[in-house]
Amino acid sequence: MTTATTRPSDRRISPVFLGILAVTAVTGWATWTGFAGRPGVAVFLFVTAAWIVSLCLHEYAHARTALHSGDISIGAKGYLTLNPAKYTHALLSIVLPVLFVIMGGIGLPGGAVFIERHRIRGRWRHSLISAAGPLTNVLFAIVCTAPFWLGALDGVPADFRFALAFLALLQVTAAILNFLPVPGLDGYGVLEPWLSRSLRRQVEPFAPFGLLFVFALLWVPAVNSVFFDVIDSILSALGIHEVETYCGLELFRFWQGKNEFCSVAA
């Protein structure tokens, strides 16, 4: 079985992705140095661009794992170029996750890559393909939280620290929510190969609505409170204080004006 794509261009990194990466680097630098006249705008662009980079890598992980599991059609679809324009649903892939961040301060990648599952043999391979995406978010969370739990924040500007804390929150929420065993999310994809055929058929009609169901559920105050208590506990264990993620969100929402509490906390 071959696992290679047929053309070098199928693997070439897209200029679109490189552009998003450049925006992340430039706005990260502007946040760090205080170069931007309005720090909130720089934080918004930095977090948004970094979030989109993580979305691209999340989907790349799905695609790459599928390629090495037997779906050799992945390369021709452009999924290995990291170009979000190649994804199956642009609205679900990029626009909706960014709106989730703006509206609720949570990270939840949407469905983007179409995998030809009939090409893949073995339940473990199917499960690993589904798990690859949220595991990428786990890796991002480790990278974002490392300066906090390593105690390497001396001299780090407050705005950059807050932005990094908020970005870490997005990655942790993305990993946890995606691992939920809800149809349409990666957690269900991990379990699906092990379910009976009849049960899969019964659940299949609900898959398109799983993402919206989870988001709607998080708007219930009691559920939202418990969920973020869990997230805060995880981040606290990783050295990130609740104030830091709060101020990161406040900076991200620059259109709401300056938060005096965060100015004192800095």
From TrEMBL:
Localisation: Cell membrane
Record protein name field: Site-2 protease family protein
Recorded topology in the membrane: Multi-pass membrane protein
Required co-factors: Zn(2+)
UniProt GO molecular function: peptidase activity
Positions of transmembrane segments: 16-35, 42-61, 90-115, 127-150, 162-185, 206-228
The entry's keywords: Cell membrane, Hydrolase, Membrane, Metal-binding, Metalloprotease, Protease, Transmembrane, Transmembrane helix, Zinc
Primary localisation category: membrane
Family the entry assigns: Belongs to the peptidase M50B family.
GO annotation, biological process: proteolysis
